[in-house]
Amino acid sequence: MRTINTIIIHCSATRSDRDFTEKQLEEAHIRRGFNQCGYHYYIRKSGIISSMRKPEVIGAHCRGHNANSIGICYEGGLAPDGIPADTRTFEQKYALRSLVHCLLQDYPGAQVYGHRELSPDLDGNGIVEPDEWVKQCPCFDVKSELSKEQYQKHFVK
Ligand SMILES: [Zn+2]
């Protein structure tokens, strides 16, 4: 088993008023030259969590950070007008919390990031500011919701 020390959250960057199925996601990634879906888990609007790629297989979802990470994608991330937005349903938020919580048990000490936080630090000050984000993905602040510190605050160990 490879070392996993990072969990990276993505959105599918599809409109929240449309369905984007596991099959469509996989086909989109195959068109981009991957042999299967680049993420390990996909969370539908219904809250269903689909396994897309075995955790022991390196993902294809965040350049420079794939070797030691797990990639999770939720369906949506764009409002019906196409503007990036936190479109997660109640069910998706709950499923995401549960999945990340389980992964932190399996990979203790792993850091949880939103994709945009791993954009290049252009001004080199050690902080990736919003104007340095390559894109909005995953369209919400992962640190304030899903970091290990947040779990320690909200869950009894
Ligand atoms: Zn992403």
Can you describe this structure in just a few lines?
With 157 residues, the protein is α/β, with parallel strands linked by helices.
Instruction: Look at the structure and give the mean pLDDT.
Output: 91
User: What is the name of the CATH class?
Assistant: Alpha Beta
Enumerate the distinct ligands. Answer: zinc ion
Please state the CA-atom Rg, rounded to the nearest Å.
15 Å
Could you give the order of the helices and strands?
A: EEHEEEEHEHH
Helix content: 10-25%
> What is the approximate shape?
globular
The CATH topology comes to: Lysozyme-like
Low-confidence blocks of residues: none
Biggest sheet: strand arrangement: 4-3-5-1-7
Distance between the termini: 26 Å
Structural domains: how many: 1
Number of helices: 4
* CATH evolutionary superfamily: Peptidoglycan recognition protein-like
What's the CATH architecture name? 3-Layer(aba) Sandwich
How many strand units?
A: 7
What oligomeric state is this?
A: single chain
Q: What keyword list fits this structure?
A:
157 residues; alpha/beta; Lysozyme-like; five-stranded mixed sheet; two-stranded parallel ribbon; 4 helices; 7 strands; binds zinc ion
